[in-house]
Each structure stands twice: as structure tokens, then as C-alpha cells.
Amino acid sequence: MPPARWEHFPHSADVGIRGYAATLPEAFEQAALALTGIVTDAEIEPRTSVEVTCEASDLEVLFVEWLNAIIFEMAVRNMIFGGFKVTLTDTALRGTLWGETLDQAKHAPACEPKGATYTALRVAQEPDETWSASCIIDV
Amino acid sequence: MDLSRLIRIDGTTWQIEPTGAMRVPAVIYAGEGLVREMDEKVYEQTVNVASLPGIVKAAYVMPDAHWGYGFPIGGVAAFDADEGGVVSAGGVGFDVSCGVRTMLSHLKVSQIAPVQKEFADSLFQQIPAGLGSKGAITLDHVEMEAMLKGGARWAVERGWGETRDLERIEEHGEMVGAEPSCVSDRAKERQQREMGTLGSGNHYLEVQAISEVFDKEAAGCFGLEPDEVVVTIHCGSRGLGHQIGTEFLREMLPAAAAAGISLPDRELACAPIKANVGQRYLGAMRSAINCALANREIIGHYARRVFSHFFPNANLDLLFDVSHNTCKVESHKANGGNSRQLFVHRKGATRAFGPNHPDLPQALRTIGQPVLIGGSMGTGSYVLAGCLSSEEKSFASACHGAGRAMSRHTALKKWRGRQIVDELAEHGIIIRSPSMRGIAEEAPGAYKDAEAVVLSAEEAGLAKRVARLRPLICIKG
Q1: Which CATH superfamily is domain B3-405+447-476 in?
Q2: N or C: which end of chain B has fewer CB within 10 A?
Q3: Which domains does chain A have, with CATH numbers?
Q4: pLDDT in tens, chain A (139 residues)
Q5: Taking CA atoms, what residue in B is nearest to A138?
Q6: How far is residue B151's CA from residue B177's CA, in Å, rounded to a whole number?
Q7: Where are the domains of chain B?
Q8: In whole angstroms, how large is the CA radius of gyration of chain A?
Q9: Is the entire prediction scored with pTM above 0.90?
Q10: What is the helix, strand, coil percentage profile of chain A, to 5?
């Protein structure tokens, strides 16, 4: 099985993010790294941790909720996160985010994620049994 | 877009006949070249919009349209509440009331030129731009409610603007029907420190030269003199609008299902206008419109401060302030009948009232509403004026920008920020931004030709060209 990884995929005005991993929680973690990748390529120190929880009856909606929870914490704390841990139950997600205060000089943030959308939203197990989680982020 | 699926009406009008679930036709306004370049997703998304309950007359697509989420960006659709019409959070977008304002300095380019660099540095220092920038204003609960109710009028009352600006802002600077109680605590929390900030992405403040006048009479009425300098600001409702969009999109998913609306795309999430969630969304979305109007008024005030420091006699006059992500109740004639109150969604489209419209200030009434079109930081922007024919053509709407020709992803592979900054400097354009990568993503080459877009808008009778603006300084978020 290929190692866990993330990527951006093209959208005409915004940015597509996708995480791949052997397990679903790890695919969500990889997608969160892709979300941070929209903002910066700089290294992020895990100085502070933040806990989030989300709920949704639908796995794909839960994925969007997870990304929106991160976007919210980034905005109100003025932080950027470089480490993620997800635990999933049927309809709920607990996540830990590790990061630091956003510093324009250090992180040179390119773009602010406004929200995760339901466009190109897909959470699925691929034929090689890898999990993938993707959607378009409005920036 | 595959032209064989469209019926060509004239040089810039293309129709998709209603088939399947479509309740009305779809009409695309653009020249052949632009239609060919449009993503197939624009076709798909427009067909989906034309299938929503209560849609009136047609789903419209502006010349700068591209693949959005739910609605295409550059989409216009009007709904009748009495015919089961819907309001859609996706049809407004995340950046509620994102828009453009242009202010006239009456200075000559030759007055700016000697201090252009210092002036750019000062603007960059004074106007918070980009992610992680901090605004100077913190709103407590009481002030937050007052801002969400009062919009630009609130900003003026607090000393961040001038009373004379208000008649030159849509809704006279204050959107009625805003219900701050419909805005969640999380949305308000996101906005606490965001007032007077530009944001990032395609948002900017530009100092521009009026490089060409197309219509002397209209330019004279608008105060646009060749070789004079204007300031244009493009930004929206910041975190508050983003959070409102996010929350209502989720809430409208089950609401649509409960109302028996089958959604071909979840992003089209909508609710009947008369349903509880529809009404709450309108109350929240109108509050976000006020937030955007206040934000642009405050940034305009900051620009005035910097101008008065460098040019003590300069007095920036607001030409106009337009919003291009909104849903507004307007009176329109449809299908030959009497005027009806319709809920007009403009997602990446500008309201373009023609001459004699009663909502326009007296000074602009003979010409029509200024329609402000943002271009890329290299190729410049346009001022158009709404035409009488736009009412019949598109519920009085026109394009909003050049539109992207290339994804950020592709742009990043193609350009380096430093290279763009140096190349533009050779053309007399100074760029200031917290992020070189952000500049590469916003490279002029990543945008469509704004000229082709505005020519299509003019030929289609949506709005006519008044003047072209060439960038001198761009503060990029």
C-alpha cells in the first residue's frame, strides 16, 4: 500500500485538497495537512495543541465539518497547524491540532481558506484499499 | 464548453433549452472565444440552477463565468417566494457581499510618480493585508450588533468614513432586514478583530491611473479624467461572512430535503424563502452585507489618511461601492407581466442598474450605475455603466472581473512571485504583499483577458465601457 500523502488538485478559482492513507482517520489527517499547504510551505512548530470535535451522520459531511473546524480555529486563534490526530466513531470526530501563532514574516501566508465546500467532495476507499478524502476549499 | 450543446441567439447570447429537470432556460452572455474557454462545469452548474424551485425567467451566466461551487461564479438567478422560490447559501458564496469600491483622488499621475515607492510602503503599512494581519479595531458585543445592523453608516458614525459616501454605496451603505440575532456566536467571534482588514487571495487595494476613456459623457459624470489617479479596494465580509456561508450551507442540506427539493449537487443547498431557515439565512446574510460595507468604508478611510499625509489637499471622493456576492430583494418585470419582488442571487456578478433607476443617486441617474470590474494586477481594471437593456437581459446584472484562466496550482508551477514583482516594476507597477507565493498564484497571466470580458458585456447590452484603469501600486492581501 502506498504511504500516507496529500496533494492539491486544480480548480479554476479555488484549491482542491486530497489526503490518502491506509486508514480513514489518517486520510483526514493528511487532508488537513493539504489544507495547511494552501496557506504556507514553511515549517510549523507544534507549540500549542487545540482539541476539536465534530458530528455528522454522513462521512463526507463529517469530513467537511473537520476541515471547517480547523479553519475556524486558525481564524480565531490566528494560528497555523502542522500536526493532526484524528479519532473517528460512526458519526463523530475528535481531533487534536498542533501548531503555532501565524507569523507573516516566518510563514508568508499565501492564501486564507474561507471554508470547505461540498464541491468535488469524496471520501472513499480506493481499489488498492487506500482511503482518500477530498474536496474544494474556497480561498 | 462544447458549443454544439448551445443555441446561438446572437454574437454574445447563447441559450440552453430547458430539458430534464430544468424549469427555465439558461442564457450565457459571452463572445464565442470566451464561451469556448468556459469550463464544462459551468454548463452543468447552470443547468442545475435552472432546475431549482421558483426560478424566474432564466438562469443567467455572465461573460467572466467559471466553475464555482453549486452556482457557477458569474451566475445570476432570481426566485419568486410566492412560487416556492428558494434562497441558496451556495448561490451567494462564502465571501458574502465581496465587492469593489473606487475612490477619486483628482491627483495627476505625475504627482504620484516621485513618491510612488514611499507611498506604496505607507499604504502597505497602514492597511492590514493578508492572513495573520491584525486590524486596529476590536468589536465588543454591543458594537458587533451595531455594525451588523448599520453597515457603512455605522462606520461613518464611528468616524471611519464620511456621510457623503453613503449615497454612493449600494443600499445607501446600510442593508435593511439584517438580523444580528441570526448570526452565530462563532461567526461573530471570527469577526472580532477583522474589521478594516483586506483579507487575502484575490483581494487588494490598488492605486490606479485612468488610462483610457471610452465614453466622455459618462466619464465626465463619474469624475473620471484621463491621467488622474483613483484608488480601488476589493474585499468582502471577512471571517463573519465565511462562517455564515459555512454554517448555513450545512443547515440547508436537510432543509432542502425536508422541502422535497432534490439537489443534483449538495453545494446547491437551499431552502424555501418562506421557510424558517430561509428567513434566518436572509437575516444573517444581510448582516454580512453590512459587515462588508462597513469593512470597505473603513479601509477607504485608512486610504484617505495615507493620501492626506502625502497630499494634504487630496480629498478622496467615493465614485461607487458595488457588491458581487449577494441575494437581494428587487423589483423586476418578468415574462411580460407587472413588476414583482424577486430574490436575485448574484454570485460573482455585479448589479448594473441602467439610467433613471430610482435607487441611484441623483448625480449618476442620467448615466446609470457604475459597474466596477477588477482585472489582474498587471492588466488593469474597468469602469462600466449599467445599460437600460440590462434590466431585460439579466435582471440588471453584469460581469464582476476578469475571471481566472488558470488554477492557483498551475500558476504556482509556472511563476515565481519575485519574478512577477520585478517584471511589473519594469512596467511602473509596484506590488506589496506579505507573500511571494501569493503573488505567483495571482500572476497576471493566471487571469483571463479583462478586455474580452468587458467587450462581451458591452456587446450583450449588460453594461457599457466608460474607462480603463492601469495599476500603479497594488497592495495584495
Answers
A1: tRNA-splicing ligase RtcB (3.90.1860.10)
A2: N
A3: 5-138 (3.55.10.10)
A4: 678 999 999 887 789 999 999 999 999 999 999 999 999 999 999 999 999 999 998 999 999 999 999 999 999 999 999 999 999 998 899 999 999 999 999 999 999 999 999 999 999 999 999 999 999 999 9
A5: B94
A6: 12
A7: 3-405+447-476
A8: 14
A9: yes
A10: 30, 40, 30
